[in-house]
Each structure stands twice: as structure tokens, then as C-alpha cells.
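The pair is quoted verbatim below.
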Amino acid sequence: MAIILIGALLTIAGLVYMAGAAIKRGQLSGGSAPAGSTGPTLEPPRRGLRFLGLSQDWPGLLMMGVGILMLLSVAIL
């Protein structure tokens, strides 16, 4: 029972860590309007996919991986 709880907590903690890291990396919304737009938008200008980099998310991925392995090990046994 404890392995299930720890696995679930690790999986959730990894997800929360990755979400927090993505939020801390940069401004999520800009107040400026892109060319051809009528008003301000929530879409940031040229953010790209750099915020999804594995080099910054590896601790969260590791926590999620260990948690999933713990949950699967209990399900298999």
C-alpha cells in the first residue's frame, strides 16, 4: 500500500515540477498585439518550443518515471 502511495505522489510531484518549471521560464502572456491584430493577445510573441526542453525537465521526468515504475511493479506483482 505504501508503494502505491509513494508512486502516485512521485508521479504527481513530477507533473507539478514540470508545470512550475515551464511557468518560471518566461512570461506566459504578452500585452503587445502582433502585426495585423486588433488588440492585445494572450499569445506570447515568438516563444517557440524551447520551454519544452528535456534539459530543464529531467528531474520532473525522472520523478514521474520512478513513480510510474513503482505503480506498475505493484500492478504486475
